[in-house]
Amino acid sequence: MRKLIPYGAIALVAVFAMSLAKVPPAQMPQAVSGGGFLSVLLGDAKKDISGAMIKEADSYFHGGVDMDCHHLHGHADHGSQHDEHGHDCRCEHCAHEHMKCDGAHDKGSFDPWRWINERVRAPEIERHLEGERTIELMPWFWAAVKADPHNVEAWGTAWYVASHMMHDDALALRIAVDGWRQNAGSMAMACVVGRAYRAKGTLDQKHSEAMFRKAVELGRNKEKLEGNDLFSFYEALGYLAEYAENENDMRALEMLLREAKRVEPDHPTTKLIESKLRESRK
Amino acid sequence: MNGRIRRIGALVKLSLLELWRRNDMFALLVLALVLLVPLSMARPFGATGATRYFDEAALLLVWGYSLFISLGVGGRLFTSEFANRTVYPLLAKPVSRGELLLGKYLGAVAAAWSALAFFYALWAVSSALRGGECLSVCFFQAFVLHALFAALAVAAALCGSFLFTPSASTTLLAILFPAMFFFGRRLPEYAENVSGALRWLVDAFYWVAPHVEFFDMRQRLVHGWGGVEPGVFLAVVGYGVAYSAVLLLFTGILFNRKRL
Questions:
Q1: Which side of chain B, N or C, has fewer Cβ within a 10 Å radius?
Q2: Is residue A5 part of a domain?
Q3: For the domain that residue A268 is a member of, what is the CATH number?
Q4: What is the pLDDT of residues B75-94, one digit of tens each?
Q5: Do A222 and A158 fall within a single domain?
Q6: In chain B, which residues have their Cβ closer than 8 Å to the Cβ of A135?
Q7: Which pLDDT value is given to residue A155?
Q8: Average pLDDT in the A248-273 region?
Q9: Quick one: A230 and A132 in the same domain?
């Protein structure tokens, strides 16, 4: 009887393995997202690692100081707002974050260990990497997108740094195109590529327009547009309207206005396209 | 007096030779090369010119290695002497227990410092080759504070070897030191989030535990913040010397009470 136990156990394992093989991979409790060895080994931890790399890039941007201000976060998402006034960090978001940082240091009684720690570590003052020196951030963005190629924020922020801080349009375009290759269904990524083709050094209106059209098309296929997708949708419409206005293409403007009104008739971009159309008709 | 210095000097020389005779250093060097050479060749997004990430990774490795070496040499100082019973012929010579302890400790510190100097020299050369600024005031301060960390770690390992078994002592310190290194300055924040006896414990631990994070100047060195103020530097030096001295004194009491 005892001799049969191992055979019974093997049979049980075999039956279990065969039943597992019949379950579609997507219905497994822990489906592997993405391909490759890292995906199998790390699973969802990749996203956390990728996020930690972005945080490290933020710390490097502040000269190695963890300011908890996350200046670099969200630049891909609301990049066009920053395009308007450059990254001078006097925007409401950044000012608010700095106030939070300053307030964190008010402590009561004297603590010698804290006194030493605060002085040995770099002072938590506002100091940012600028210009070509922002190349120092790139290894962390690279690590972030290697850990999780679907981290659109990392791709977008890397593009922003290359384009707006390093002023290296070729590098920025390379990053944007690589990011698009990994995230072909992302509206935000399509907008990033569209904007990368608008840069002086890599100006290519045909490709830029195609990417913004792709973003609009992706948005049209979504059941509900909200959050970053909604932002990207109107961002793409805004740029397309600009191109149409430059070419005095009334028909294109009318189509864009219809598209904009369909989702949010009162959106600022809808109003903007409306005014552009009115101007063009005069 | 001269005789005492000569006796201690001989013990220092012995400890120093022991480290360099072992193959630990060369194994660590090979490991560093295996990790750092591919890292130095990385071209993120095809762009070149980023150096800080490499400097930081290299310095972190130096910190890890110095901890490994310090705990190793400190923990081995008397354990093997007791196990092999070689401590008896040593004490049979005109050497007091205090002299033996001090001589062996200084020897272990000298060994740890020589390894540290070797790794810092390599770091400085690599930084200079990449166009970085080395041999600055900040570099000097970083080395001195790191050396004090090594002295403290040797003292702690030596003390631990008298209190626990060698493996238990090394394991405990290998957890305590990195924990303090990364989270030591945040202990008051953790204490604020707990209540009752646990809060009291965290607070007490904050005041008593070795604040090895004081000796970490990587951030200033890598990101070019410059050196610390002389007063702060002296305060950290004082802290390191005082903490090591207290540990050594405590070890001396344990050694004197130990029945051989």
A1: N
A2: no
A3: 1.25.40.10
A4: 888 888 888 888 888 788 77
A5: no
A6: 47, 49-50
A7: 95
A8: 90
A9: no
Q: Does residue A193 lie in a domain region? A: yes
Residue A251 lies in a domain: yes
Count other Cβ atoms within 10 Å, centred on residue B52.
21
pLDDT digits (tens, 9 = 90+) for A9-27: 888 888 777 776 666 665 6
How many domains is chain B built from?
A: 1
Lowest-pLDDT range, A95-104, B188-197, B242-251?
Answer: A95-104
Tokens of B28: 């660590």
Subunit contact B44:A121, Cβ cutoff 8 A? no
User: Quick check: A194 pLDDT over 90?
Assistant: yes
Which residue range is the domain that position A153 belongs to?
41-106+114-167
User: Is some CB atom of chain B closer than 8 A to the CB atom of A193?
Assistant: no
Q: How far apart (Å, rounded) are the C-alpha atoms in residues A119 and B120?
A: 23
Q: CA-nearest residue of chain B to A176? A: B45
User: Considering the domain boundaries, does residue A33 fall inside one?
Assistant: no
pLDDT tens-digit map of A198-219: 988 778 899 999 999 999 999 9
Mutate which: B36, B53, B145, vs A, most A CBs within 10 A: B53
CB B149 within 8 A of CB B237: no
The span from the CA of A155 to the CA of A149, in Å, is 8
A120 → chain B, closest CA residue: B228
Find the helix or strand (DSSP H, E) in which B138 lies: helix B137-163
Contact B225 A122 (CB under 8 A): yes
Structural domain harbouring B136: 2-43+50-257
Dihedral sign for Cα atoms in the order B150, B155, B160, B162: positive
Residues A146 and A177 both lie in one domain: no
- Taking residue B114's Cβ as centre, other Cβ atoms within 10 Å add up to 14
Q: Angle CA(A41)–CA(A46)–CA(A47) in degrees, nearest 5?
A: 155
For chain B positions 13-52, those within 8 Å of chain A (CB to CB) are 42, 44-47, 49-52
Does B220 touch chain A if contact means CB atoms closer than 8 Å? yes
